[in-house]
Amino acid sequence: MTQLLDLLDQFTHQHDQNRLVYNQDWLANQRDLIFLGQRCGATAIVDDYGNVYLDFPGQINDQPVATGSHMDTVKYGGRYDGLYGVLGGFCAIQQLYEQHGIPKHPIRLISFSEEEGNRFLAAFTGSKYYTGTLQIEKLLDNQGITFDEARRLAVTQLQHLPYVKAQHVALPVTFTELHIEQGPRLAQNNKKIGLVTGIVAQNRYEVTVHGQANHAGTTPMAQRQDAIATASLLMTKLYALAADTAEDLTFTIGEIHVSPNVSNVVAESCRFTIDCRANTNDQLMTFVTKMLQLLEQSKRTSVIETLHVPATRLSDDLLTQNAALATQMNYSYQTLFSGAGHDSQIMSSFVPTTMIFVPSEAGISHAPAEYTKPADLLTGVTLLSASLFMQANG
Ligand code: HGY
Ligand code: MN
Ligand code: MN
Ligand code: MN
After folding, report:
1. In the chain, which segments carry CATH 3.40.630.10?
2. What is the Cα–Cα distance from 181 to 337, expressed in whole angstroms?
3. How far is the CA of 247 from the centre of ligand 2 (A)?
4. Ligand 2 mean position to 13 CA, how many Å?
5. pLDDT grade, residue 139 (50/70/90)?
6. Ligand 3 centroid, distance to 116 Cα (angstroms)
7. To test ligand 1's pocket by mutation, which of 342, 343, 346, 357 has the most ligand atoms within 8 angstroms of CB?
8. Cα–ligand 2 centroid distance for 36 (angstroms)
9. 99: nearest Cα among 393, 389, 314
10. pLDDT band at residue 59, thresholds of 50, 70 and 90?
11. What is the pLDDT of residues 147-204, one digit of tens each?
């Protein structure tokens, strides 16, 4: 257990969590993960997007079963989202080899380069690249540097390390992702484990309202094109529309950027993001259709869709197998549907995929207050280890 806590301390740099894709903390972590894996007998592979794969040997050297999660985090995020799945996955594999020796089939730990879509408005780029589903033209910039420049710079800095370079890495036999719940249900129901039946449908957009910069004191109200006035009216209507739609729909405007952002200047532009989610594709599309109609009616407003991920059903067989293991190990569990998006959504279109959740204290996530008790972290690691042992000896 101390190994996991020590690793979490090492990989979270003891300060606020800003492991944005391809930045210095991200680079240090992928580099340290490569060294960690190689010290424990893994073959390290890095692909052109900076996904790190640690392949631990099997008695038969065929396709591996896999576990892992994403190395990046949201801006000002928590210590566990993504990173727990990478480091907990590493500890689960170590536990397995120490207890049972080399399994029949190899086991792969994947540290996906990017999932959150925070530094650039392109999300799930690591697992999408791995599965060959990344649409390059959607890699939007974030003023000043393109995704591709940041990617090339980072991967080049990894490249002098002694690992196998690979354009593309073959898919595994299965994928199991260990993750914090990022919601309140396990804590409220006093369950130690969540077994995930499916994951939410999610669309994201970038909306820009265009106006005209002008003097705050001399421009008559009827003659100004105030981008903030138009945008704030639009946002109010959007929130009202969301409130009228299905009760499990979530609608979030998380980012707002104003230009020139000066107190005595009428705003010339207001750019904001939309994150909307629902448990079914139909519910989401019903809302999105009405939302886009509303946006089209708004003067001087442009909309870019930056993400579309359909609702995902995960593997029933792997869930059933993990439920039997949890029962055997006396771990209280419940099945649940995930309102958070995960790399497992991308992987599940290609290989049987399942997720194991552990409780988030007070359900908080995507914030520095994100916390899971060490004993709960360990329960997830131990169940994952048993699950991987079963899969790698099947
Ligand atoms: O936003 C999400 O649902 C995930 O944490 N990327
Ligand atoms: Mn640092
Ligand atoms: Mn997240
Ligand atoms: Mn995550």
Report:
1. 2-199+312-393
2. 10
3. 40
4. 5
5. low
6. 6
7. 342
8. 18
9. 389
10. very high
11. 999 999 999 888 777 778 787 899 999 999 999 999 999 999 999 999 999 999 999 9
Enumerate the CATH 3.30.70.360 domain ranges in the chain, comma separated.
201-309
- Ligand number nearest CA of 115 is 1
Nearest atom, ligand 1, residue 116 CA = 6
Residue 361: burial class (beta carbons within 10 Å; 0-12, 13-18, 19+): middle
Q: Where are the alpha helices (DSSP H) in 79-141?
A: 83-100, 125-130
DSSP string for 19-48: --TTSHHHHHHHHHHHHHHHHTTPEEEEET
For 2-199+312-393, which CATH class?
A: alpha beta
Torsions phi, psi of 200, nearest 5?
-65, 150
Binding residues: 70, 81, 116, 179, 204, 264, 277, 366
**190, exposed or middle or buried, with CB in 10 Å at 0-12, 13-18, 19+?**
exposed
Would you give the distance in Å from CA 302 to the centre of its chain?
A: 27
Indicate the pLDDT class of residue 138, thresholds 50, 70 and 90: low
Residue 166: alpha-carbon gap to chain centroid: 23
Identify the CA nearest to 273 among candidates 254, 257, 291.
Answer: 254
What would the mean pLDDT of 28-36 be, rounded to a whole number?
95
pLDDT tens per residue across span 250-289: 999 999 999 999 999 999 999 999 999 999 999 999 999 9
Residue with the smallest CA separation from ligand 1 atom 6 is 116
Is residue 31's pLDDT more than 90?
A: yes
Contact 115, 307 (CB under 8 A): no
> Is residue 145 scored above 70 in pLDDT?
yes
Q: Which amino acid is at 239?
A: Y
Average of per-residue pLDDT values in the chain: 94
Ligand 1 atom with least separation from CA of 277: 3
Residues with CB under 6 A from ligand 1: 81, 115-116, 340-341
ipTM: 0.88
Q: Which one-letter amino acid corresponds to residue 359? A: P
CATH number of 201-309: 3.30.70.360
* 3-class secondary structure, 2: helix
The answer to whether 216 and 207 are in contact (CB under 8 A) is no
Determine the distance separating the centroid of ligand 1 and the alpha carbon of 194, expressed in angstroms. Answer: 17
